[in-house]
Design goal:
Strand content of chain B: under 5%
Number of domains of chain B: 1
Largest sheet of chain A: 2 strands, antiparallel
Oligomer: heterodimer
Structural class of chain B: mainly alpha
Number of helices of chain B: 20
Largest sheet of chain B: none
Number of helices of chain A: 5
Shape of chain B: globular
Radius of gyration of chain A: 20 Å
Structural class of chain A: mainly alpha
Strand order of the largest sheet of chain A: 1-2
Number of strands of chain A: 2
Helix content of chain B: over 70%
Strand content of chain A: under 5%
Distance between the termini of chain A: 10 Å
Radius of gyration of chain B: 22 Å
């Protein structure tokens, strides 16, 4: 038996992404309603919405990395089996997963450095005036999650013997 | 040298099947590091900054919202009622059900902004209905996949939101208005081969014997769904909503219709609906973020301007160059999905567009037309993938049919190319 799904389920990241989207809907809806009645919108909600959008994008991306289904060009990536189905070429699958994991490991480190600067220089946000690193701090862990999910896909592919047809 | 590396390494990574987002980030980061070998952290700190600022844009909020609208209306039960009403309008006979499928896809296009969501909503109703009336499954899948391509032209449209985020000079309302007439023309361009092929091959002869639904009763049932495009587009036109707010109003309206009026959505369905929308958006937004790194590399390495100069010096003239660009994209878009086409090529083509002073709204509509055609052109046909899966046929089986639709759609693209007013008249008339 080969497992195609990660041991630690992607439900965690899925939940974070869903909760962010739901909050985005609620905030934007409240914004429309208050603006309608008071002619005044909460400018500060923009900052939170933008933050939630980034969280949703990265958490969702991590869940998808766990299933190894980010958009790619499959023209050369897949090969046709004698049974007529398309399966990924083993070597390319390994390379793609490892490259993905490496990129997001580097990005996690760069984002950590970026957030460190925000902390060191006590930068504050435009709308709410809160420290910027409050928002920034969630990004490196989410990038690490994407990297770990991609690495998990690499390990699973490595353990799967490249058996001609039904791999 | 580094510039060539940037483009070639990305091309190779892409062909090797590295996910597009990861390939963009990898090529971009390596090129930045190479160019700044003696700087602190190799100048790479520009990477996270540009990635963050490409996603953290308030207008981009319209993207997940319109994706969510698509996921909700896909399950809200409005498609079935619109189909019944459309049959009541056009009647029964050979070629009428395909016409209904295209008309309903166009009206749904006025609610949702994504082609595959539209294909799922229309396919869920029409593929079984067309099969009962004697249309072959491969033909039905073709009609549904092609019909859903009108979705990204008819406002609201996710493609236009993404283009607007990339191109400062083109506002979302102007693009939405510009897509309206080409979108309707695209629908007509698809109805023509659908009817002609049905008549020629005698499809749907059994259809004429089926009962025609009563007009007023089906209009009443369909009215909740038919009102939605008026709410979304009218609300924006009257200045009630920004595009993002229109999307969130449509989310609320769709949930109300699905949960309360038609009762086709259960409270337990909400989680999968939101999950689907969050993940579709996340895939696009991750590419958008990575494309931020890539286009920073393009700009700082000065890749695009020499290309623009070189293209301009080639002496093909404005129209000739544009035709060549569109032809190249027609080929490339057969292998790369639509959003990636925008994210990779718009930053490269923007200087070219400026050098020739192409109208950026018109250019956006032309690119979107190319992408719409690609959505039902094998092998990278996202809409056709959805409809073929629903019909249980392989994509190869659609080729004898889909070629006719592609030819007809290409004629439409040429019309907008030669008569820019088809796109530009409405936004100017509305004052955008």
């Amino acid at each position: 038996m080969t497992r195609h799904t990660p041991r630690l389920g992607v439900q965690i990241e899925e939940f974070i992404a869903v909760a962010s989207l739901a909050l985005l809907v609620v905030i934007t809806l409240l914004n429309v309603i208050t603006r309608y009645f008071t002619d005044d919108s909460f400018a500060w909600t923009e900052e939170i919405s933008v933050f939630l959008m980034v969280v949703m994008a990265l958490a969702g991306a991590s869940a998808i990395a766990g299933r190894d289904s980010h958009i790619r060009i499959e023209f050369l990536f897949n090969r046709r089996t004698p049974q007529g189905t398309e399966v990924p070429r083993h070597g390319l699958k390994l390379f793609a997963a490892l490259a993905s994991s490496a990129v997001f490991l580097v990005l996690a480190a760069l984002f950590a450095r970026w957030v460190w600067d925000q902390y060191k220089f006590s930068e504050t946000s435009m709308g709410l005036g809160v420290p910027l690193w409050w928002y920034g701090a969630v990004i490196p862990p989410l990038c690490l999650a994407i990297s770990a999910r991609a690495f998990g896909a690499f390990v699973r592919a490595l353990r799967t013997p490249d058996a001609g047809g039904d791999a | 040298m580094i510039a060539a590396f940037l483009l070639l390494s990305f091309l190779v990574l892409m062909l090797m099947g590295v996910p597009i987002a990861m390939g963009l980030a990898l090529s971009g980061l390596v090129s930045i590091a190479w160019a700044n070998a003696d700087a602190q952290w190799l100048g790479l700190l520009a990477g996270p900054q540009n990635m963050y600022s490409s996603i953290a844009k308030y207008p981009l909020l319209a993207l997940p919202m319109f994706v969510l609208v698509g996921s909700i209306f896909d399950r809200s039960g409005v498609a079935q009622r619109m189909v019944t009403f459309a049959i009541a309008c056009v009647g029964r006979g050979p070629g009428m059900l395909p016409t209904v499928a295209i008309l309903v896809a166009m009206v749904l296009g006025g609610i949702s902004g994504s082609g595959p969501a539209n294909a799922a909503a229309v396919g869920g109703v029409m593929i079984a209905a067309m099969s009962r009336a004697g249309y072959p499954a491969s033909f039905s899948a073709t009609v549904v996949g092609a019909a859903a391509a009108t979705d990204i032209l008819i406002p609201p449209s996710i493609a236009f939101v993404v283009y607007s985020v990339l191109v400062p000079g083109a506002s979302v309302p102007a693009l939405f208005a510009a897509g309206m007439i080409p979108g309707v023309m695209a629908g007509i361009a698809l109805i023509a081969p659908a009817i002609w092929l049905s008549r020629r091959h005698g499809f749907g002869a059994a259809e004429a014997t089926l009962a025609r639904p009563p007009f007023w009763a089906s209009l009443r049932d369909a009215s909740w769904g038919l009102a939605a495009p008026f709410l979304i587009l009218g609300g924006m036109r009257l200045g009630w909503f920004t595009p993002t707010e229109a999307a969130v109003a449509a989310v609320a309206y769709g949930l109300f219709v699905g949960l309360v009026v038609h009762r086709s959505i259960d409270w337990r369905d909400l989680y999968p609906i939101f999950r689907e929308a969050a993940e579709i958006s996340a895939v696009i937004m991750l590419i958008l973020g990575a494309a931020g790194i890539f286009s920073y590399a393009i700009n700082t390495l000065g890749v695009a301007d020499p290309i623009a100069q070189w293209v301009k010096a080639a002496g093909l003239g404005s129209r000739g160059t544009l035709a060549l660009v569109l032809l190249a994209l027609l080929v490339v878009s057969m292998f790369i999905d639509g959003v990636s086409i925008f994210l990779i090529f718009v930053p490269l083509l923007y200087p070219v567009a400026q050098a020739f002073q192409w109208d950026l709204v018109w250019f956006g509509v032309l690119l979107t037309l190319v992408v719409a055609k690609a959505q039902f052109t094998p092998p990278m046909a996202v809409n056709l993938m959805v409809s073929c899966r629903m019909a249980g046929v392989g994509m190869e089986s659609t080729i004898p049919w889909v070629l006719w639709f592609i030819v007809s759609f290409l004629v439409m693209i040429m019309a907008v190319f030669f008569y820019p007013e088809l796109a530009l008249w409405l936004p100017r008339h509305l004052g955008y």
